[in-house]
Design goal:
Structural class: alpha/beta
Number of helices: 20
Largest sheet: 6 strands, mixed
Low-confidence stretches: 250-262, 295-304
Number of strands: 6
Shape: globular
Length: 511
């Protein structure tokens, strides 16, 4: 409980300021088991106060205070990745107006990027309680902030000390903080159930993370007369058995195979010395080794939406097999892909009266009931407008001419690394086989850059049978021309356009 107490106090203090919880955190600084987490939560409280300021001077002063507290914490706990992320982000924000802004922001952006690679793998391996928001939210926010700081670092020069999108960097930092500290509001729930939701996972995790504690509990329930009939101990044992059984019976074992698989790797490496090593090594060291042996394949195991997680895992597993999946390319394309999939979600769920003229191409007829004339310009203009409200707003270019002898619809530029997004309309055949005719153009535009591109295909063939679902409408086509040794991977996302009212749909004839 002590290892999670500061986290609970910090989140509650964010939602109930002035309730004395900050004082409780300061008392936790005196205890060895809680001092590091308490210092981190107090630093987040200082950051919250900074972001609430409406003037630069008090905000900068409070940010310096936050950074000093984080510096002390990093000295005490050098492996604390979350503290390193906030420290680098604040360093970049303060560096924007410093005399040595170009060098300072560039260094902070590089530090943030390197730390995020480690943090992403760590974050997806940790348990997220029921009351917390899905863990991917803060990872996505940090990725967006990384992209924006890279843009700022590339823009800044000694004769140009300000980055015009600086307010966006503060907004992205606020988004990362908010994602980390947002909780699910429990409504119409008795107080006892709410406390159980908060506390029970903490206690259960303490047993699940250390097998000797489970054995002690089993022994006590079998032999200790006081505990044998204790309802709370019996309930805890039942919960542990249920969670263990659920984990073993999970159909998604490939994403989180658990300690056994990773210890097999360790056993393979040290072979005959493995048994003695396990017996002689303290359990907390074994736990740290177990965390270190986790791979990126474990990362997506506990994302809140399992079907979306499966989609993301499928795409990333294919993309990372490319030799171009390198630092400086992978994060950037992941951010672009994530934003584009969000756009697909928006298009699939758009209402009959939502979006105005920008989204008329997604409906069967316009508001006057006339037949529509939809062209590619309207389609990719709608996509561009959506990108404008993402972290990519400052790196979007449209209708770029003289690109590989043609003109790209949308070009996203991360400095020297560029990705093109082609927008096509298909009115005759929008099957996977038919849409392959468009991928060569998207791949051609990447001939001098990383081998990744996106093809958005507006499917105007949707009729009385309705549209294919989103998850069957996103796939990757490898495009490898004559003489090429590495294919360009084009992500195809099929968007349903000109849809009928779902109330009027009829099932297709039986085959």
């Amino acid at each position: 409980m002590a290892t999670r107490l500061p986290r609970l106090l910090g989140v509650l203090d964010a939602h109930h300021p002035g309730a004395g919880l900050r004082e409780a955190l300061e008392r936790c600084l005196m205890l060895d088991r809680t001092c590091r987490d308490a210092a981190f939560e107090l630093a987040l409280g200082d950051l919250r106060q900074a972001l609430e300021q409406d003037q630069h001077a008090p905000m900068a002063e409070q940010l310096h205070k936050t950074q000093d507290r984080l510096t002390e914490l990093i000295t005490l706990a050098p492996d604390r990745l979350d503290a390193q992320l906030y420290h680098a982000a604040i360093e970049a924000v303060l560096g924007l107006s410093a005399p040595d802004a170009p060098a300072r922001v560039h260094t902070a952006a590089s530090t943030l990027r390197d730390t995020l690679h480690l943090y992403r793998d760590y974050r997806y391996r940790t348990h997220t309680p029921a009351w917390a928001r899905p863990r991917q939210n803060d990872v996505i926010a940090w990725s967006e902030l990384t992209v924006m700081l890279d843009g700022a670092a590339a823009h800044l020069a000694h004769d140009d000390p300000w980055y015009e999108g600086g307010h966006g960097i503060l907004t992205a930092l606020l988004r990362a903080y908010t994602a980390h500290n947002t909780i699910a509001v429990l409504t119409d729930t008795p107080a006892a159930a709410a406390v159980e939701t908060l506390v029970a996972p903490v206690i259960e995790d303490a047993f699940l993370q250390h097998e000797h504690r489970q054995r002690l509990l089993q022994h006590a329930l079998a032999h200790d007369e006081e505990l044998r009939d204790d309802p709370a101990a019996q309930q805890l044992q039942a919960a542990l058995l249920h969670r263990t059984k659920t984990r073993e019976n999970s159909t998604d074992q490939a994403s989180d195979p658990g300690k056994a698989r990773r210890w097999q790797r360790l056993a393979h490496q040290i072979k005959d010395d493995f048994a003695a090593f396990v017996d002689q090594t303290p359990e907390h060291v074994l736990d740290r080794l177990e965390l270190g042996l986790r791979t990126h394949d474990d990362a997506l195991a506990a994302i809140a939406d399992p079907k979306y997680a499966r989609l993301q895992a499928r795409l990333l597993n294919q993309l990372k097999n490319s030799r171009d999946w390198l630092p400086g390319i992978a994060d950037e394309f992941t951010t672009l892909l994530e934003t584009t999939i969000r756009y697909a979600y928006l298009c699939y769920d758009i209402g009959r009266k939502m979006g105005g003229s920008y989204t008329e191409h997604l409906r069967k007829r316009d508001k006057d009931g006339k037949k529509q004339k939809v062209d590619e310009a309207l389609f990719h203009q709608h996509y561009r407008e959506v990108l404008q409200f993402s972290a990519l707003f400052s790196v979007i270019n449209s209708e770029v001419i003289d690109k590989a002898g043609g003109r790209t619809d949308i070009l996203i530029s991360f400095g020297a690394v560029q990705f093109n997004v082609e927008c096509k309309i298909e009115e005759d055949n929008a099957s996977e086989t038919a849409l392959r005719q468009y991928v060569a153009q998207a791949a051609e535009y990447q001939n001098t850059n990383a081998g990744f591109a996106i093809l958005l295909a507006l499917d105007k063939t949707v009729d009385a049978e309705g549209a294919a679902n989103l998850f069957d409408s996103i796939w990757i086509e490898p495009v490898q021309g004559p003489g090429e040794t590495e294919p360009c991977l084009v992500v195809i996302i099929r968007i349903p356009g000109g849809r009928e009212n779902p109330n009027q749909l009829r099932p297709p004839p039986a085959s």
